[in-house]
Amino acid sequence: MVRGRLLTHWIRGDHVGPSPVDRARPGSKHHLIVDRHGTPLAVTLTGGNRHDVTQLLPLLDAVPPIRGLRGRPRRKPRHLYADRGYDFDKYRRLLWKRGIKPMIARRGVAHGSGLGKVRWVVERAFAWLHQFKRLRIRYERRADLHQGLLELACSLICLRRLRTVR
């Protein structure tokens, strides 16, 4: 599941852009791809004015190999669930070329596509990320520091998930 979440705060620096929903205040956006259990696989940081779909392929490329029981590790997921923000035919074709079945809600179609059953997983992952105050409101001017904190938070979430699985 892929999703982007917008953060607005009075900051300047890299990866900051005018928010399209909050009176053009400067903000940043976290883009996250998770597995079916909500474990973060890859995360990126962009300006608030960047569209979510622009980060779809870079996030897929950043996913590490998926280890199985035997044989070569999988390099890609079988399915990709996403909301209406990712509904572009160009990206659907690119996903099919990579051997990934896109399960993306259609724009302009009434709700009830069934993605609500799986969307809560990525929303919960964002809730886990934003329990860290430094990620909920961006105070750092340098994007590399905020990206580092974002990756550290993802590592902590993965560690907590491993402790509960045992």
UniProtKB/TrEMBL annotation:
What is the protein name stated in its UniProt record? Answer: Transposase DDE domain-containing protein
Protein's organism: Streptomyces melanosporofaciens
Q: Which InterPro entries match?
A: Transposase_11 (IPR002559)
Instruction: Supply one GO BP term.
Output: DNA transposition
Q: Which PANTHER family match?
A: BLR1914 PROTEIN, PHP DOMAIN PROTEIN
Molecular function (GO) terms for this protein are: DNA binding; transposase activity
Where does the Transposase IS4-like domain start and stop, copy by copy?
Answer: 22-156
Q: Which domain of life is it from?
A: Bacteria
Q: Which Pfam families match?
A: DDE_Tnp_1
